[in-house]
Design brief:
Chain lengths: ~230, ~200
């Protein structure tokens, strides 16, 4: 395997770092999965004031995913603020459990084990329905979640995630039949659409690490905590 | 006229049902706009030229059969990269369309769910016209759109070999991934517009 040092420079033959000794998860899980980057994140010494501002939260400077994305600070900052409003803004709209359910379903469908673990945990925490969330992870997006509204949210999120996109008026009607308002349906659309962004970054810039092998947060600064996406 | 592309493409006027939906998440609306600016029309494009960004945008929209955004980005690509490059990329996008997400899972426990996905290799005449850097970026965009779970270190090496730096690769990845979001946002809001609360009453 390659033995390229972590801080490769532009003139080096290989910008890419692999992690041959890292164990991959075997399946989707609600346990805490780690993540290792294939490209070099900026080190704390390399961060300018603009980089720090673009990270939005100071602790993210020590998370490899964000320390890598901050190489394009304007793109990262706008992405992060979009993310926070879609998932954390509780002024009206869909309960956070269903927003996180949409995120978990999209991640399950696209195949992002890391993203699915984070948002399955959040969906389970906000809904207290861990068994239903676990069934979604184990069986996939066609499973019966045991709740008609949840099934409708998962179907809508999956239809939005297909290429070409298959979400249509019938999905709106199904959500409406469960009493969702325009703004709540807007939250489903935002949450599912956003994870088609997040999944692609997580899947293509690094790899998930098996829960049992997750590096310690303080030891390497590589682990990624709960709110990570 | 609003400078928000999503509002403009969907004719979202102040006080309309979709305006109220978007206004409920004001930071998401503003930052989707800022993301567009940062990735499609940045003041300083750094290592990823404006023309390349526009070509990738029309390619990704074409792969999705997203006509509203596709028409917009096709115009932008013609302006920035010229008709020959824009025509080539639109034709390539139409030819390379497929259903996604597909691909092999990297996890041992998910092999039964793996599917074969289409891969794109840009032909030599197209490579000559677009340049190696753009051609390789389009191949990567195709991978991220249709087989995101198959992306691996060698795909990043291919981008590096075509001349893209680590920071450029971050920008290219953000661009394609953002487009996957923006296309779905427009598509979803358009479907909602035909079935809003007002439309039903």
């Amino acid at each position: 395997m390659n033995a390229v040092p972590e801080n490769t420079v532009a003139t080096a033959p290989d910008l890419v770092t692999e992690h041959p000794d890292s164990r991959r998860p075997e399946h989707f899980t609600r346990s805490t999965v780690g993540w290792l980057p294939w490209l070099a994140p900026l080190t704390e010494d390399e961060l300018t004031p603009r980089h720090r501002e673009a990270l939005v939260e100071e602790s993210r400077a020590r998370m490899p995913y964000f320390a890598l994305l901050v190489r394009d600070p304007d793109a990262l900052e706008a992405r992060t603020r979009t993310d926070f409003d879609i998932f954390h803004n509780t002024e009206g709209g869909l309960p956070r459990a269903e927003r996180e359910l949409a995120a978990a379903a999209v991640s399950r469908f696209n195949g992002c084990v890391f993203c699915a673990s984070v948002h399955a945990r959040l969906a389970a925490r906000f809904s207290s329905r861990g068994e239903d969330v676990d069934r979604l992870l184990a069986e996939g997006v066609d499973t019966d979640t045991g709740d008609r509204l949840w099934n409708a949210v998962v179907r809508a999120a999956v239809a939005l995630s297909r290429t070409p996109v298959e979400f249509g008026p019938e999905h709106v009607d199904e959500l409406r039949a469960h009493g969702l308002s325009d703004i709540e349906i807007g939250d489903v659309i935002n949450s599912a659409s956003f994870f088609n962004w997040a999944n692609r970054l997580m899947l293509s810039l690094g790899e998930p690490v098996h829960p049992h092998d997750r590096p310690g947060r303080t030891a390497s600064g590589r682990a990624t905590p709960e709110g990570d996406r | 006229m609003t400078d928000d592309l999503v509002d403009r493409l969907l004719d979202i006027t102040p006080g309309s049902p979709l305006d109220r939906v978007r206004a409920a998440r004001p930071e998401a609306r503003a930052n989707a706009r800022l993301s567009h600016r940062a990735l499609i029309e940045p003041a300083d494009p750094g290592g990823v030229p404006h023309a390349t960004r526009a070509l990738i945008a029309v390619f990704v929209a074409t792969l999705h059969e997203a006509s509203r955004l596709g028409d917009h980005y096709e115009g932008l690509a013609r302006e920035r990269a010229g008709d020959d490059a824009a025509n080539t990329v639109v034709a390539l996008g139409e030819w390379a369309r497929a259903h996604g997400p597909a691909g092999r899972h990297r996890e041992d426990g998910l092999v039964d769910e793996s599917t074969d996905g289409p891969t794109l290799t840009v032909s030599d005449p197209e490579r000559a016209l677009l340049g190696e850097a753009v051609a390789t970026a389009l191949e990567h965009a195709h991978l991220l759109v249709l087989r995101p779970r198959e992306a691996g270190p060698d795909d990043l090496r291919a981008l590096a070999a075509a001349g893209w730096t680590t920071t450029d690769i971050v920008t290219l990845s953000q661009l394609v991934s953002f487009l996957a979001f923006q296309i779905r946002l427009v598509h979803g809001l358009e479907a909602l517009s035909t079935r809003t609360e007002d439309a039903r009453s």
